[in-house]
Amino acid sequence: MTNAARMKILTPLDHAESGALNVVQLANDDDPFTLKDGIAGIDRIELHFPHFTDGRAYSQAYLLRRRLGFRGDLRATGDVLIDQLVQMERTGFSSAVLKEGVDPADAAREFERFPAFYQTDLSGAV
Questions:
Q1: Which fold has domain 8-113?
Q2: What does pTM read for this prediction?
């Protein structure tokens, strides 16, 4: 299966201007299961990467998608590097906010580098 980029890549300005009715921000040490009872009413959940070496948001994304069934926009914010975008998408993120000055076209090309995978991702596709 080929990897068609489905993740929405945003600049900081795009992110600031994007509107959603019900947005929740989770810090890296927040438990996603606290959202369990109201998750159906949430439009977007923003998970923060305070530093690119801190990957707790990957685990949160997986839990939100797989265990809690979140279907809205799951957005990566903070220290988002373009070489992490493919893994972010594979763990459940649907959008990511690039750092100031990063070219969205460069980020989009990252998805072309990996046409297929051996392992399944969150969707179960290989």
A1: TIM Barrel (3.20.20)
A2: 0.82
